[in-house]
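Q: Is it fine to ask for two folds in a single conversation?
A: Yes, each is treated on its own. Send the first.
Q: Here.
A: Result:
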Amino acid sequence: MRRLCYIILLLLPCKVAAQDFSVSDTLLSSKVEMPDTKEAASPQPAFRFAYISYGEVRQQMPAYKQARQQVEELKAKYEAEAERSEEEFQRKFTEFLEGQKDFPSNILIKRQAELQDIMERGMAFRKECEQLLRMAEDKLMLGVDRQLHAAINAVAAENGYAFVLNTDGNACPYINPLLGDNITDMVRLRLSITP
C-alpha cells in the first residue's frame, strides 16, 4: 500500500507536465505568439547598475584642486616654522659645543637641559603639525566628497540605477559592459568638469 502511494506521488508530476504540454499545444494551435528565442537567450538584468572611478573624478574636480592647494599652503607654513625651530636648535647646539669646555658644570647642565627641551619641543611640534595637516585635509576633502556623492546620487537616481560601483583599487577587475554603465562622463558633466 505504501509503495502504491509512493508510485502515485512520483507519477503525479508527470501527469501535470503532460497536461501543461497539452495546454501549450492548444495555445500554439490558436496562433498565440511565443517570445523570440534570441531575446529569451540574452541575459536580462533584474536591475541596472553603474560604475565609476571615484578617485579619478575626484582629482579632476576644481574643489579638490583648491583643497589640495590649501593643504599645501598650510604644509609650507608648518614646514617653515619647523625649520625655524631646527635652526634655533642648531645655533644653540653650536654655541654649546664652542663654550662647552669653558662652562662651569651648573651652566653646562642647564644648557644641556635647554637643548634637550628645544629638541623635544621641535619633535612634538612636528608630530602636532602632521596631525593638524591630516585633520585639515580630512575637513577640506569632506566638502569635496559631499559634492561628488551628491553628483553620483543624482546621476544614479535620474537613470534608475540600483547601485554604483567604485572601480578604484582594482575592486572590480571585470564588469560586463552590457549589464553595467560607466557613468564617469555623466558625473563629470554634472560637476562641470571638462576632461
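Q: Second one now.
A: Result:
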Amino acid sequence: MKSTRALILAFLALLFAWVGQVAIGYIQVGRLEPVLNEETNYTEPPVPSGLAQTGARVFASEGCIECHSLSVRGPTGSADLTRGWGQRRSVPRDYLFREPALVGFSRIGPDLSNIGERIKDPAEMTMHLYDPRKRKSTSTCPPHPWLFEKRIAGPKTENDALPLTPINWKQTVPSYSAKALVAYLQSLNLNYALPEAPLK
C-alpha cells in the first residue's frame, strides 16, 4: 500500500514538473509568430540565410557559446543596455528562426545578440576571427587560424583574402566555415522593435 502511494506521488511530481516546464513553456512561447513590418514587408525577427544557419553550427562547434551569451538581459538602464550590447532586451520571439536557439549564460566575452549591428563590416569580423588582437589589443578571444586556408598568391589578391602581407607567396583566405560563422555573427542584430520589446 505504501509503495503504491509513493509510486503515485512520484508520478504526480513528474507530471507537475513536466506540465510546469514543457506544457506551460509551449503555451507561452510555442505559439509565437513573427511580426510583419508593414513598411518593409519583411518579418521581424528576420529569417537568417542558409549560410548564417550553417554558421550557427560552426559557432556551437567552435565553443564560442562557452564564453559568449546571446541574450541581452534586463529592463531599460540595465548593465547590458548601458554597455551597448543592444538597444533593447532579448525576448523569446527573437529566437523563432534560430535553430539551434543558442542563448548561453557565460559572460567571459561580451554578449553577441547585437554583434551584427556593432561590427557591420564582414571583413572586420573575419579579421577578428583570425586574430582578435589586431582589432582590439586587450581582447581575450582566442584566434581561430584553423578556419583559414593558406593559398598561393597569384598576380591578383583574392577578394576575400585577409589584408596580411603574404608569407612565402601565400595569402590567407577564409574557409567556408569561417564565411558561415561571419554570416551568422552578422545576422545577430536586434535593431527591430517587437510588441513586447520596443526599441529604447
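Q: Anything structural to flag on that second result?
A: Two points. The CA atoms of residues 87 and 200 lie 6 Å apart. Residues 35-187 form a domain with the Cytochrome Bc1 Complex; Chain D, domain 2 fold (CATH 1.10.760.10).
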